[in-house]
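User: Look at the shape:
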Amino acid sequence: MHKYTLRCSNPSSQFLQIQLEFTSMNEDEILLQLPAWRAGRYQLANYAQFIRGFQIQNKQGEVIPFKKISKDCWSFEAKKNHSYDIKYDFFSSRMDAGGAWIDDQQIYINFINCCFEIKGTKNHPIELQIDLPFFKQQVCTLPKNKSGNWYADDFQMLVDSTLVASNTLKQWHYNSGNTLFNIWIQGDIHFEKDIFLDHFRKFTDTQIRDFGEFPELEYHFIFQLLPYPHYHGVEHQKGTVITFGPAESLSDPAQMEDLLGVSSHELYHAWNVCRIRPIDLLPYDFSKENYSQAGWMLEGITTYMGDLYLLKSGVFTLDTYLKQIEGVLKKEILNQGWKNQSILESSFDLWLDGYQAGIPDRKVNIYSHGCLICFCLDIMLLEQGCSFPEFMKKAWLIFGKPKIGYTNESFWNLLLDQVQDPMPFQGFYDRFISGKEDLILFFSEKIRQLGLELELTPNPDLLAGKLGILISENKITKIHQDSPAFMDLMIGDQIKYQESESQIHVVTSRINGSFHEFKYESTGKYYPNPILNIGEEIGLRKKWLK
């Protein structure tokens, strides 16, 4: 049994003191590998940069020499049946749903940030002792052993877990199926408890109904409700962490819709990604990049289904749901990346710049683009007597529950097995998944089968709508490639403009000190505003909402 002990002598310092105790079974070189990234965000985080004071001692207190063999892997020579203590400080100053944060109010740790894998012992059980007397309330998504400490069956289970220690945690709970769902809240509450729990119970019940079962007997929603703007969620097998702010904004129904959206999204991950996962990511290798082309399956499906279940469960009205999809469409309209990369290519390139804006129109967003892909596929399945929820239940039973994973080919072939005529689906795949065609035009056609209509209205912003120029703080951030200004202006230009009856007069100053002046006709139609209209209810919509 390996054992971690966590202490914090001075919360204001934001340093966590960590001790790892283990016994070497052989006389050999021991490799201590710290994760370089975390599940749910396919981007190197390099957590080793937050470690200081690393040392190794034997049980006699003697210091053991070590060396680093990479930026996040430490090595030392161990003797057979000798016990060792690894000690280090970890700086916890990143408040997001996957990070670590310490202050005078709480200690919040996602173990993926700060715990070492002892190479060659991947199936070794791990005990976790918490010595944090400042904070009496403690919640961890790991189970407890007979001695009252938390434990993990192996390293993968440990780093899929979260700890919060505080004196101000609020706990609510509800039951769905055979599972107890805990809601833990750190921060101020500005909404009605009973309404909140009713919403959660409804979308949870509906997700479990369609999958037929929930993978855990107990699950934890951990909310960090912050005093400043924030929006983030991270999935785990036994729970999720969601950071949202400002907390007081949750008295606004529109803000609560966003919180419900990310909550339903992360719960859906309990099946999809946490268990229905590509073979490329099974198990995770946290020492390096794990490349995959499965972005539309990982996040596109979850984005689409998370919001759909708020609609299917009655938490969202159809009007509210369509506002969420309008938000997805706005992101897609502002991004012409589909002209340059397929979603398969953008998935593979997540490790480059997947979570930053990147250069103009290089890539697609796996969340928004993937969501529209799944919306279209769901309608196509409905047309052939199936549905996306039914397909995902099959994916759960075949790939997720037995923990065997899938390839791109096996996942797609399973979808084709659900229909009598696979030709339209293969054409869709070639055009919009492996291909680079305009998905919004196809989406606009397919949603008519649900009695919905997409209307593209002029962008109310003058520069965006008539010249295809996006600005922030009077600086150009993007120019539509079809705009006449694309040949004249640059990203970063400081811009002043005025509109006459038929022209837009633009004056810019550039970082090199030069000034430029141009006049353009005020007739362009760029970056339109999407509006989804509800028409007459038809039979396919009833099955979609069932």
Notes: The first helix runs from residue 155 to 158. The chain has four domains: 2-166, 169-267, 271-458+536-546, 462-527. The chain is about 30% helix and 30% strand. The chain has a mean pLDDT of 97.
